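hiii so my PI (J.) wants the whole complex modelled not just the main chain, which honestly fair. so below is everything: two entries, each one labled with what it is. i double checked the lines twice but i was tired so who knows lol
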Amino acid sequence: MDLRHLLFTLALICANDSLSASDDILQRPQISKCRSPEMETFSCFWTAGNFYNLTVPRILQLLYKKSNEEDWKECPDYITSGQNSCYFNASYTSVWTPYCVQLASKKEVYDKKCFSVDEIVLPDPPVHLNWTLLNTSQTGIHGDIQVRWDPPPTADVRKGWITLEYELQYKEVNETKWNELKPRLSTMAPLYSLKTARDYEIRIRSRQRTSEKFGEFSEILYVSFSQIGIGCDHCTEEVEFPWFLVVVFGVCGLAVTVISIMLSKQPRLKMLIFPPVPVPKIKGIDPDLLKKGKLDEVNSILACHDSYKAQLYCDDLWVEFIELDIEDPEEKNRASDTDRLLSEDDLKSHSCLGTKDDDSGRASCCEPDIPETDFSASDTCDATSDSDQFKKATEKEEDLLCLERQDNDESLPDLASTDPQHQHRNTESENSSVWAPFEDSVESPHLSVHTQISNQNSLTSTDFYAQVSDITPAGRVVLSPGQKSKLGRAQREGCTEQNFTMDNTYFCEADVKKCIAVTSQEENEPRVQEQGYNEDGYFTTESLTTTVANLGAPTAAAPSSEMPVADYTSIHIVQSPQGLVLNATALPVPDKEFNVSCGYVSTDQLNKIMP
Amino acid sequence: LLNTSASLLLVALLVSHMLLTKEGVTSLPICPKGSVSCQLSLEELFDRAVKLSHYIHFLSSEIFNEFDERYAQGRGFIAKAVNSCHTASLTTPEDKEQAQQIHHEDLLNLILGVLRSWNDPLIHLASEVQRIKEAPETILWKAVEIEEQNKRLLEGMEKIVGRVHSGVVENDIYTPWDGLPSLQLADEDSRLFAFYNLLHCLRRDSHKIDNYLKVLKCRLIHDNNC
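here's the output for the full assembly
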């Protein structure tokens, strides 16, 4: 019983398999293509598929319909184009009329296609291909021929009913890949530089000029030069360029030249062709020290160089600063740190601060105590250039201090009076709690901080500056990251259209006041939009125009996380001795008398103007 | 001094003569501006017209293919391909026999009529196609180019008709086009189908005109022996 069961299931499985296999092959009848060779007649071809009930012929019908008709008509000619085809002669063909054809039996529609005759034009291949010799090369190895042909006889090119273009392809007899020429309108084509020792095959096909598809290829034309007695049997060995010899001799010659130069006693020639490779060298350090491994001496020498120190500590400093910020708030209560920063030692520190500004951040990283070690190490310091540089820095610093003092004599009181207000607003609008301790301690130090920072900027005379947000007990300066500008509002038409004579040095009070007059009447928007928003949190005079234009939003009105605090100003350009161009802050200041000539405007004065 | 200036003048004349009568130049001779009596031969006029009509048909094919590829896939536009063009009311020859039999003046008038009927739609096509979402630059450029070239072809044809016609030039063969609202429909599918339709009709009609002009050229200029 078990065996019979097994056999039975096996038989079932086999039967299933065979049935399903035959199902896969079963195909629907479908229209394979419709084609018009000359735009006067057309034919449609189809495949019958292998439905079992269609083996009886003529069950399948092709019905057609023109676009403006209602009824489906049957194919007029099933014979002329062969089996499974339908031929429409000229009387049934309208060229630009849409047709639809469908393949159907009595019960079911199997396939349907819609087209117009101008879209299905595929011309017959050209006929009567022949070639003639144009000329041969002097050696008789190569020759040029001209190939000619006639257009397909079915296409009426003479009356201009159809315009054809032709594509010629050729290859050597034993090659596999055909070379193609560009399609052309004329019925002749030259082929240049064919090898007379070889035989060639040529074939051509045509298409209607504005179509993309080509028709069938013509019969192949065989080209054999030996037939007309040109073929050169003993020319089969072609003279090829002696690459091998060239390479060998070239290498030898080059080697000889190099060796002779190296061995030559002429130092100048040697220098010219083989320039000496610069070896690494640090100023003031004897390479022998490094070799002998005396690291202590090397370190002390290197300590003279600011850049080395900065490299040593710089990146780490940032990390430390950030951490300290969060973890040790009480350290910041000591005003002595700021005093220390702002004390006479500043002069020394300026060598650090006065380093040329680049974006590396080293300038801000410099420790105040670095210059001190500089002095202590000066005994071992060989480099005199450092001290020179340092001296120059201090000289510059003195100049600016004088200059600054002149200006600040007037503005200091103002600055002092406005600063608390600045600070007040700052603390209101600033989110970070770190800032709170500053409220009490800070008036004059902040004033000096401002000044110092401005000095620093004037020294460097660049746009780069940052706000000192904190000073650690170690005397390190903590700089705050960039703050968003408080360039409050959306552009005010009236203000931005003002033609400030912004030649980047100053702008006139009159212009500023005009702008203010326009903006002052406008309502305060609680939402601060950022115009001329500068990622780094500072303003340049280029953005000043928009700054001025956008001022007006009172800071106290809507403190939000987006409300930036700009409680510092930087000197943008020093126009010594008349003026300093300061970047405007976005803080408005209560109205005060503004009394300055149209030479420059300082920050606080600008602040006074702004409503 | 006289000798050298005379020889220079002679050289200049020779060179200019050479340049003007150079054989094998593909560009057709140009009538100098402002000249009243200069007339291009009918052959040259037909040559230019055929070149223009071929170019217009080429551009129409391309723009239709690009539009089809970009917007018509999967929308079943082809299934609705039994569309009617606004120029269907003009009875144009539909096969070679009819094209052979029609009189050349009538055929010229028909060509003019079709070209005039397309003037308006092409202007609106060029402007409305800009509003299609993310239309490729090539489509935009082609639409504008077709519209320009159609104007030029119309001018050329009017010149030819003026030369060929023996009698009064009829101006009344014309079909108005009212498809502008369909190009501005809010529904994107319907709007794109309207564009598809219009471009399909444009391709067809430009092919017609190209063919008729070639037939006329072979008939009138080359005596049926192109």
